[in-house]
Specification:
Layout: H1 3-26, E1 37-38, E2 44-45, E3 60-75, E4 80-86, E5 96-111
Antiparallel strand pairs: 1-2, 3-4, 3-5
Length: 121
């Protein structure tokens, strides 16, 4: 799988999971990733009612630590190329010469996940 596809699908699945969890858990009174206010003491609170209090959305990081495979290929027609893919199980057989290097890359992507707007009454 290409790295860009892996990142896109991971963030999409995490976001969809948060959204679905908020729907499911709201039936039990659980609030998933609410819009919040931050008090001077650093504690997070759900606002009592809409007001002039600045509400905030948390920026959260999705951390990635993935193994990638960089493959240099030389095909029979003499053309060369490089591809970088997320390492997965299995393998493939082809009629080309390959030089493969496996590396790990680590990075974080900040996101604001779906929130639930709710107010204590």
């Amino acid at each position: 799988m290409d790295i860009s596809e892996f990142i896109k699908e991971t963030i999409k699945e995490v976001s969809d999971g948060v959204f679905q969890a908020s729907i499911h858990c709201s039936q039990s009174g659980v609030i998933v990733n609410p819009t919040i206010t931050v008090e001077e003491n650093g504690e997070y609170y759900i606002p009592v009612k809409p007001s002039s209090v600045a509400m905030q959305r948390r920026v959260q990081k999705i951390d990635f630590d993935i193994a990638v495979e960089a493959t240099e290929t030389e095909q029979r027609n003499g053309q060369a190329g490089v591809s970088i893919k997320v390492v997965s199980g299995g393998g493939s057989h082809s009629k080309e010469s390959k030089n493969t290097t496996i590396s790990r890359i680590c990075f974080s992507i900040p996101v604001c996940l779906p929130t639930q707007d709710c107010f204590d009454e």
